[in-house]
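User: I'm preparing a small set of examples for a lab meeting where we compare how different chains pack in three dimensions. I only have the primary sequence for this one, and I'd like the structure in token form so I can line it up with the others. Please keep the answer compact; I'll paste it straight into my notes.
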Amino acid sequence: MSHARQRINTIAASHWFTAILFIAILLLAAGLRFYRLDWIDFRFDQSYALHYANDITHGILWPVQPHGSVAVHPPVYLYVMALPYLFTSNFMTIVSYHVLLDVIAVGLCWLIGARYFNLRVGVISSFLYAVAPWAIQSARNTWPVPLPLFSAIVLIGMLEIVLRHNVWGWTLTGVGMALVAGTHLAGVYVLPVVLLACWIGRKSARPLPVILGILPLLAITSIYIAYDASQHFVNIQSILSTFGAPSQFSVDSLQFGVWMSGGMHLSDLSGAAYGHWVEMTPASLAFIDTIQVMLLAASLIVIVFQAFISPAYRYRKRNPLQQNDPVISQPLAAVLILLWWCVPILLQMRHSRPITLQYLLPVIPAPYLVMALGIDAVFGLRTRWRSTTLTTRAAGWIASIAAVCLVIVIGGWQIASTFRLMQVVEQYDTSQGYGLPVHSAVASVQYAKQAAAAGVSNQVILVIKDYATPWNEQAVILGDVAGGMPYRFLNSNVDGWVFRAEGTSYIFAPGTESLLNGLRDYVNEADLTIKTTPLRMSGTEGYTYVQVKGMPDLSSFNKARPINWENGTELTNYRITAYTSTVRVDALVEVNQFQPDNTDYHWYSHVFDNDRKLAQVDGPGIHPLNWRPGDYLLMRFDIPLTSALPNDPLYVRFGCYTFPQVKTILVSEDGKKPENGVNLAMKYPLR
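Assistant: Understood. Below is the structure token output for the 687-residue chain.
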């Protein structure tokens, strides 16, 4: 075989090995991020963004993200998350799409290291990114924060401008910066680094690429300012007021920046289960987190030395021969990446409001590249010393092997930390830390979908605490998890149930057990299917799926005469039970030809002795937004008695009115003239 042929085979084998290694790291990143994905932390901050993203696919084009701690943010994140909703509403698919965006960012981290430094930097940086616990948890979390994918795009654009003098790097930088700042206002913290890179590479600027890069930034900025102008600039005033408030110096931002580089303080997510976290953590290995931080600090020193101290020393010694033999192959690129990590931290060390973790997310993937450059510098020393004495060559090899072992140990520890966190989340209460896992809600929705496929009910009724306002956490979470399945809500604080003739599917959220227990008063156990999926393996609290076969047991109810209200409802059955201190009214109302609207109806039940009112209860019942034609609304009203009931025959005056206008809805009985209400006879004796 010729020498040329051997070289070709060697190159081909090398490329195959590189491709396999690249795929292995991406699979590792995906595996850690997809591991037990149905156990992710899913709270209001994680759910509302998906709600608004879904709105976009239905024609509601949000000019901003409607929520923000200081001010609302630009809307890019909502539109990025709206893309999968064009094809599916399946909750787990949407979350998987979010995870894949981070896996792509791991691939871009490899590209940055390999393209602008060497293959070793690409491998090490992408591996450290793939296994970093905080990066993994951020990838699984759907809250609207800066995405590392966007930061990687800006870094590539900047380095193309500075190192390759690629004119289209200007376009890539502008588009990436529009994505970073358009997702979260914290993106502006990296703007000084972008401006510095543009100034360094200014000679490569050309009109068309620059204009194409500026246009997305102008579009995002103009949309945001136009919206704020319509709101009397309340958000911009809030931002200026916040920055103008008295400030203080702290190292919080540095701590968060260090966290984002690895796994320190991942135990904070264990919340109330911190003691269990400690029990699962081998104390002898906890120091590895500190070693990883030391690696970050050492890499920072190496980059600063290579970029500033070493050139100054060579200039003073006037030894130009050493200038082409750097420890880091591209010191300028290394400095820009280091600044990408440092500048947001430094700018936030003096702050006027508490710093939170999401403010530091734009720094990813810079810390992994910084650490990889530090490790690569060790290999660079081995290369520099290969022509020296045997002792120095051996020292170079030992240092290189030690560096590889260090990366493996750090990676192994961080992988174990991720698995350990999920073990804690699955088994113990992590309130005040991780939050409620979504696993239980997902399982309950799956039961409802299976029932719909079997023809039981094509809708699911979600029982939550309080009303389904845009700020009700349970409503927003269940609405997202339900995906494309039709649903409506019931307020567990108001007695009332919905039944369908073909069968009914319910999902009861945690804390709504009272309404679930009340359901048993009207439905035979044989007609009930109840499946509770615990929030965690060690507990009993969770979301409960309930399937009701057919209608409730009406054997003890009275069949009503034809009684119809003008709002499209009809009283079909009722039961009035008198106790010693309470009168209970159970009313079954059928919904006929009704189109849900925002009109709220309250129902009243008044106990009368002839013309004398003895007691009354007015209540909201089931909100009309949750009515559908063909529904049977079973409403219960417990009327407290202030005195003993007389022995005379009594009756209940039952009716309906709009709220808060208190306009009575007329009711017709047996074709008679419409009246304000209907009289229902009571049963005796007292219970």
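A couple of notes for your slides: Confidence is low (pLDDT under 50) at residues 319-325. Residues 306 and 326 are 7 Å apart (CA to CA).

User: Perfect, thanks.
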